[in-house]
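S1.2 Input.
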Amino acid sequence: MKRTVAVTACVLGVAAGAAVLAHKSAAPAAASASGSAFTEIKWPFLMDQWGLGRAFHCAAAACGADVEVYVRAKIGFCNCTTGVSDDAELERIADVELLGEQFKAAREGHPIAVAWMKGRSRPYDVAGRAAGATLALAFNDHCDVIVATAVVPDGPAAHVEPAVLAFLNSDTVINWAKEALGL
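S1.3 Output.
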């Protein structure tokens, strides 16, 4: 009887260990599909009232087009009641002006989700750049907001939106966001 209990405990222990190993070996594959195609580059903008952010690049082979994504937190700058729930709020808080003072929305935005946060995404035309080559994204946690700007050098940024959203949902960005938001 004691031997049966010991063998059963041993088998269960081996099975649990195998499950943990399988989970750990599968996790990097899932993370690499959404995050590792992006490599961090130097923040290309001057410091302003929101400080420096983080910048990332993804090559066309991995993202469908070359894309750079600029991300930063704006603490206490979001509408605390409604969050980033409409295009007017997205335009108010977005960082599109970092790319040029003359810009206009290419079309209406749409809701997005990044981890536990909700927000919006909207393509923009920026003077001197290809039409629709800029994508403004913002998502909030209460009164704090994370803004992201995706730029494609020669085509519509909407084509890379799935890759950008996958990256924004990656551990790289989510862990940084938690730290930046003081969570």
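S1.4 Remarks. The helical segments are 2-34, 60-63, 87-93, 161-168, 171-180.
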